[in-house]
Design brief:
The chain is an alpha+beta fold. It has ten helices and 14 strands. The radius of gyration is 17 Å and the shape is globular.
């Protein structure tokens, strides 16, 4: 199984890098953009990236399942959760966000990434995030550590909330979730040194894994947004839960990832309104 997992991670790395280079270069030729809602959008490059990754997986592992953002778009939250609950213990499921941070990508803001996670035995066993703007490839395999361009990474050593930088995003799914997230900003900003709003969960989580920031909290997101980032943070020595401190399920729509040392402080701040 170790060799199979290693081969799966290698394919995920190759697919993420190939798709990332494609979207970076293809953007220069122009984009076709459609609105999912008044605050959420998709480009033709999202679809092309997802198809590219899917074909690479299908070629090597035709019996593996694929769960990509664009392929399940339009499902209700209940239908999406049911699809995830249907994953069997023996299934290998590739969880793909072909462009995380699509609005940033559309606006040519350099904060977007390819995110690929792999689920087996209903656990996230591998994750890859590729930032094509910085040419940074983050990868992790359960029990084997986390890496950036092949070099081991660890979460930060910050011990106190006052020394910590916290990332978040403005949810793109609906305004109710966005209002809830905004309401959590004052207590977080009072407790922590600084905040960053990136609107790219994959890079936000990767930044926690490599110690550039100390915590990231996200709501109104999907498994494809956070699967790779969750295993990265855990393998880099961090802690990942829901924002209320309870364990994360695959069907969860919010996440809190920290370096571990400030986790309790983050949970407290996020639940003080």
């Amino acid at each position: 199984m170790d060799q199979l997992y290693a081969d799966i991670l290698s394919l995920a790395e190759n697919a993420a890098r190939k798709a990332g280079i494609f979207i970076r270069e293809a953007r220069k030729t122009g984009l076709h953009v459609d609105a999912k809602s008044r605050i959420d959008f998709v480009s033709d490059k999202d679809l092309m990236s997802e198809n590219m990754i899917r074909e690479m997986i299908r070629e090597k592992y035709p019996d593996h399942l694929f769960f990509g953002e664009e392929s399940v778009y339009g499902l209700s939250p209940e239908e999406e959760a049911a699809r995830i609950e249907a994953f069997r213990e023996e299934d290998f499921v590739w969880v793909v966000d072909p462009i995380d941070g699509t609005v940033n990508y559309i606006r040519d803001y350099p904060q977007y990434a390819i995110s690929i996670g792999v689920v087996h035995h209903r656990r996230i066993i591998a994750g890859v995030i590729y930032d094509p703007f910085r040419d940074e490839l983050f990868s992790a395999l359960e029990g084997k550590g986390a890496f950036l361009n092949g070099a081991p990474i660890r979460v930060s050593a910050a011990k106190e909330a006052g020394d910590a930088i916290v990332n978040t995003s403005m949810p793109m799914n609906n305004m109710t979730t966005r209002a809830d997230m905004v309401s959590r900003i004052p207590p977080v900003s009072e407790s922590f040194q600084s905040m960053r709003i990136w609107n790219c969960a994959a890079i936000s989580l990767a930044s926690v894994a490599c110690g550039r920031s100390d915590a990231d909290y996200e709501a109104g997101i999907h498994l494809w947004d956070m699967a790779a980032g969750i295993v990265l943070v855990r393998e880099a020595g961090g802690e990942v839960t829901q924002m209320n401190g309870l364990p994360c399920a695959l069907t969860q729509t919010n996440v809190l990832a920290t370096n571990g040392s400030i986790h309790a402080a983050a949970v407290s701040a996020l639940n003080t309104k």
